[in-house]
Amino acid sequence: MERNAFINFLSNVSSRLPIQAEGGFPGAFGQWFEKDLPWIRTEWPDRFSVPASLRESRIWLFLTAPVIWSVSIPLLLLDLMATLYQTICFPVYGIPTVDRSEFVIMDRHKLAYLNWLEKLNCVYCGYGNGVLAYVREIASRTEERWCPIKHAKTPRDTHPRYIHFAEYGDEKDYLDKKSKQ
Length: 181
Fold this sequence. Notes:
The chain has helices spanning 3-15, 25-36, 50-56, 59-70, 72-93, 116-146, 171-179. It is mainly alpha-helical.
């Protein structure tokens, strides 16, 4: 359904409603709709057009894109190796495996208001950030099993298991936690 047809459809439906939005639906519906959902406009914006997006981009986009996309190869290898690592090692030590699908989520490419280049970039970012979160969870489970000791200096961002680790320098706490494994 084209955008203008969609607005007309909503205007017709809303005109039958007993309650009207601020400014009234039938005459000012487009303005009200645009205020609440800014990505919908009277005309399709140029950002839906890949050539228009590329024309407006600075030269740095073209120069940095290969560097950004080159990270996809290490991400793929990290994903593969982390999956192999946990699949082989975790069952041996009784560590629950991490469900990759809870971390690697790629769904933003389904948004109709993105052009194909934006969709591709969203897939890349969803995959990259998902893989890093997945690997962090695998690493946190490994750390919990093999070295559940807090650092002398608290890291800026710790995983949820970290708060249960033994205090740095507290041998008794460490031995107690190790004995419960």
